[in-house]
């Protein structure tokens, strides 16, 4: 399975997903050492795991929930492709997902 | 005193010193429970927090969310937990100092610590407990061109003097409780108030949202969906905001509310042995690498550390017993359960 993250220096990173992983994109990025603050540890309140979705295979992403939409109010420069990585569970359908880290709050 | 800073660098009269047994940095759940544990063992606590109220993450990030893993409390909100912790510690009258950031620690010749805050207030304490969580909470800054230049004058992240805003044209940015509460609070003294939020939905208490909606519907308040791109400057004075898309709103002041973000800040310069962004402690005493300085709660690290409120409570108890041994080395320590110890403080039941 291939998940690509583009960091803030425009470098591409392929995340290694072990079969049977039950995780979310935020945790995968943190484990891979990518600079994601994730201040609330995945509780959907801080929006410091904000990413822009660049490519989403069918079924990779669930609908944007109300909680996530609310938390996105606190994201830095949210746009139409904004999602919170802690709210993206990793499933087989995520193969081919490509996201970009949003800029950090100054 | 062996501290290195010079007292003369601050204007005379601004320095004020408070002597205490224990100075606690951070009024989150762990700092609050520490005042109880230390109080029960007979020690006087002063607590400093950069925020203007107690509660740390529980109060700032999730006051209404239920917490399910506090032993013997099947369900309580962040706010209830903090209210109860304050109630529990009340017999010991901890003194709170809000709106102050702890900036420096200096060891004195007699082994006590001198703790300096950002506004000159100092504390002399026999022990220091760092319960700083993930760091100092500070407001997220408006991501708009010209924001830095107007910060503190035209651009505000908190309202200290409401009267200063009377008769002004105000723009309030944000869609949560802080933004909406301030919009309600200020709209009747402002000449005109415009609320700017990225979408036409607010994430605040339903009653607040209804009141704001009513004001917008009757035209008493303006609403613009969008984001502020730039603060417009007229020879050094803020004269308006330009929204993304180009529209301008004339105003004298912008109040921006994007929530808080935690930064470790000054703690990194205390000379403590760190593990990444966390303070290394031993698990027997919760002592740091500096003699007489302790760390508990989210800010501390040891193998197996879990960042749970529960863990912070346990850490507070062990810390308190060691602080007592440190401050009262001559007294023979007899362990007492709260069932016995609290009689002295609350009277027999
Ligand atoms: C959404 C969410 C849900 C959670 N749910 C749970 C749960 O269900 N169960 C659970 O056990 N835990 C939960 N947690 C974690 C829990 O809130 C933390 O473990 C807890 O708040 C840590 O307490 P603390 O006292 O160590 O630090 P904090 O609560 O972070 O408080 C630290 C305080 O120190 C202040 N401070 C820092 N540096 C300075 C300085 N230099 N000068 C002055 N003040 C300073 C800060 O302003 C802050 O107020 C949750 C966290 C979040 C965000
Ligand atoms: S980690 Fe805080 S919202 Fe995702």
Automatic annotation (TrEMBL), chain A:
**Cofactor entry:** [2Fe-2S] cluster
Q: Which domain of life is it from?
A: Bacteria
Keyword Iron appears in the UniProt entry:
yes
Describe the location of the 2Fe-2S ferredoxin-type domain by residue ranges.
1-105
User: CDD domains given for it?
Assistant: fer2
Keywords per UniProt: 2Fe-2S, Iron, Iron-sulfur, Metal-binding
Known InterPro entries for this protein?
A: 2Fe-2S_ferredoxin-like_sf, 2Fe-2S_ferredoxin-type, Adrenodoxin-like, Adrenodoxin_Fe-S_BS, Beta-grasp_dom_sf
Q: Name one Pfam family in it.
A: Fer2
UniProt signal peptide: none
Checking Gene3D superfamilies in the record gives: 3.10.20.30
The UniProt similarity line reads: Belongs to the adrenodoxin/putidaredoxin family.
Q: What is this protein called?
A: 2Fe-2S iron-sulfur cluster binding domain-containing protein
What species was this sequence derived from?
Alloalcanivorax gelatiniphagus
Automatic annotation (TrEMBL), chain B:
- Establish whether keyword Oxidoreductase is in the entry: yes
Task: Report the InterPro entries cross-referenced here.
Answer: FAD/NAD-bd_sf (IPR036188), FAD/NAD-binding_dom (IPR023753), Fd--NADP_Rdtase_type_2 (IPR022890), Ferredoxin-NADP_redctase_2 (IPR050097)
Which keywords label this protein? FAD, Flavoprotein, NADP, Oxidoreductase
Residues binding FAD, per UniProt: 30, 49, 57, 62, 102, 137, 298, 339
UniProt cofactor(s):
FAD
Residue ranges of every copy of the FAD/NAD(P)-binding domain listed in the record: 21-303
The annotation note on the cofactor reads: Binds 1 FAD per subunit.
Catalytic function, reaction form: 2 reduced [2Fe-2S]-[ferredoxin] + NADP(+) + H(+) = 2 oxidized [2Fe-2S]-[ferredoxin] + NADPH
Question: What is this enzyme's EC?
Answer: 1.18.1.2
Give the record's family classification.
Answer: Belongs to the ferredoxin--NADP reductase type 2 family.
Q: Which PANTHER family match?
A: THIOREDOXIN REDUCTASE 1-RELATED-RELATED
Q: How does it assemble?
A: Homodimer.
Q: What is this protein called?
A: Ferredoxin--NADP reductase
The organism of origin for this protein: Alloalcanivorax gelatiniphagus
């Amino acid at each position: 399975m291939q998940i690509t993250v583009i960091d803030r220096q425009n470098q591409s990173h392929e995340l290694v997903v072990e079969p049977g992983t039950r995780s979310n994109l935020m945790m995968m990025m943190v484990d891979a050492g990518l600079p994601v603050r994730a201040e609330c540890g995945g509780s959907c309140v801080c929006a410091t795991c904000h990413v822009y979705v660049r490519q989403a295979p069918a079924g990779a992403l669930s609908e944007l929930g109300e909680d996530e939409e609310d938390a996105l109010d606190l994201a830095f420069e949210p746009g139409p492709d904004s999602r919170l990585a802690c709210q993206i569970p990793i499933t087989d359908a995520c193969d081919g997902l490509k996201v970009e880290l949003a800029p950090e709050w100054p | 005193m062996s501290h290195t800073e010079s007292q003369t660098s601050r204007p005379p009269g601004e320095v004020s010193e408070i002597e205490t047994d224990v100075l606690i940095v951070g009024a989150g759940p762990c700092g609050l429970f520490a005042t109880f544990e230390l109080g029960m063992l007979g020690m006087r606590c002063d607590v400093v927090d950069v925020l203007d109220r107690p509660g740390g993450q529980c109060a700032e990030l999730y006051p209404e969310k239920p917490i399910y893993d506090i032993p013997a409390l099947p369900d309580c909100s962040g706010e209830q937990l903090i209210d109860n912790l304050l109630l529990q510690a009340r017999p010991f009258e901890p003194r709170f100092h809000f709106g102050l950031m702890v900036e420096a620690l200096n060891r004195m010749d007699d082994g006590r610590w001198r703790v300096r805050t950002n506004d000159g207030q100092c504390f002399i304490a026999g022990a220091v407990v760092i319960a700083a969580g993930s760091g100092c909470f500070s407001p997220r800054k408006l991501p708009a061109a010209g924001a830095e230049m107007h910060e503190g004058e035209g651009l505000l992240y908190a309202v200290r003097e409401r009267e200063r805003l009377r008769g002004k044209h105000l723009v309030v940015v944000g869609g949560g409780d802080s933004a909406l509460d301030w919009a309600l609070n200020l709209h009747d003294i402002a000449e005109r108030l415009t609320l700017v939020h990225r979408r036409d939905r607010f994430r605040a208490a339903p009653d607040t949202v209804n009141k704001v909606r009513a004001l917008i519907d009757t035209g008493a308040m303006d609403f613009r969906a969008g984001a502020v791109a730039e603060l417009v400057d007229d020879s050094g004075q803020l004269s308006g905001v330009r929204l993304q898309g180009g529209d301008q709103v004339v105003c004298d002041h912008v109040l921006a509310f994007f929530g808080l973000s935690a930064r470790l800040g000054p703690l990194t310069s205390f000379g403590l042995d760190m593990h990444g962004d966390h303070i290394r402690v031993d698990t027997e005493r919760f002592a740091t690498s500096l003699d007489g300085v302790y760390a508990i709660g989210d800010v501390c690290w040891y193998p197996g550390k879990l960042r749970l409120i529960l863990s912070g409570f346990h850490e507070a108890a062990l810390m308190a017993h060691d602080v007592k041994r440190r401050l009262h080395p001559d007294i023979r320590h007899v362990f007492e359960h709260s069932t016995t110890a609290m009689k002295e403080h609350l009277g027999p039941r």
